[in-house]
Amino acid sequence: MSEPLKNTDFVKVKGLKVKAVIGVFDWEREIEQPLLIDVSMATDISKAGKSDDIKDAINYKEICDDITELCQQTKAMLIERLAELIAEHILTKYNTTQVEVSVAKPTAIKEADAVAVQIIRTSVAS
Question: Are 102 and 116 in contact (CB under 8 A)?
Answer without folding.
Answer: yes
